[in-house]
Amino acid sequence: MAPTLRRAAILLCSLMLVVAASGHALAGVLDDQTRAERAIGYLRTKQKPNGSIPAFSPIGSTADAVLAIVSAGVGPRILQDALDYLRSQAAAGHVEGIGLKAKVVLAVDAAGGNPRRVGGRNFVRQIRLSAGPDGHLDEAAVFDHALGVLALLAAEATVPAGATQWLLDGQCPDGGWAYDSPYDPVNDDVHCVSDPSTDFFSSDTNTTSYVVQALVAASDSGWTDDPFAFFDTARDLDKGGWAYSTAFIATDANSTALVLQAYAAAAVSVPGGGRAALRHLQYAKCGAWAYAYDGDVKGAPNVGATIGAGPGLLLDPLPITGAALGAAPRTPRCPVS
């Protein structure tokens, strides 16, 4: 081979090796959509024969899993089995309370079903008619009331007069909302705690996220104090994620995902490293998320954390809509059980 041709061949081979090496490097970096899809692949392995995907609770977690499936856009068979389970539980009278009814409505609506007819029950109507004179839904906790408002909005139902104002009036002075009850200016401190020996619910990131999403979806985000300033106080500056409350600052997947959904709902820029903190808790190959760290080591794969993580990572706030058309990926077994 002539020297010129030989040099050209060597140069071509070198370029091919560089391109191949670059391809391998890029292949090792998972985008967030792929991460969310792998999570559904993991959830497939955890789905029970009856269609449920139990974690924190069978019905509530299965409803949340439907949202994760729709958000990721994969797993139609997993989705259908989960919906069949929810409908069977509704028909059996097992879906009780505003929060649980709201989760089922959000799930069925997200999947394109009729949220007014779930197992022969009209949970939309039940939620709407439960409102008291001040708009408070069935004397529910703040957490459940916010979910109820989101469910009504998802179903394009009329939100009772005063329902969003009840949330606004219940904001703690620190900018957050407490799980159980609204702020009482006479008895509560800035974190909505009345008596530390008996009141165990202070403002928390999970409730605050649901309230923010509900108020934004209702176009009524006229809060007095900045909830994103509250999120700042609950942020883990070491790992980059968010804790459940300011009482113990440590990144957990569910709180981090919910906070990310609140940022997305309000169109507020996510602080640097916020999504990366959630990525770091995933076992990327098998798709599962750990709930939190054990020291500096990720904890075991956790079904509840995996259910919650995807919509947060994809910055997909409630109400979620979409379609799960593609097949969920086959994922390998996680390294730990």
CATH class group:
Mainly Alpha
State the low-pLDDT regions, or none.
1-27
Overall pLDDT, averaged? 92
Distance linking N and C termini:
58 Å
Structural class designation: mainly alpha
Number of strands: 6
Q: What is the molecular shape? A: globular
| Strands ordered across the widest β-sheet | 1-2
What portion of the residues fall into strands of 2 or more residues?
under 5%
**Biggest β-sheet strands, sense, barrel:** 2 strands, antiparallel
In DSSP terms, counting alpha (H) and pi (I) runs of 4 or more, how many helices?
13
Tell me the CATH architecture: Alpha/alpha barrel
Oligomer: single chain
What do we call the CATH topology? Answer: Glycosyltransferase
Give the % helix. Answer: 40-55%
Order of helices and strands: HHHHHHHHEEHHHHEEEEH
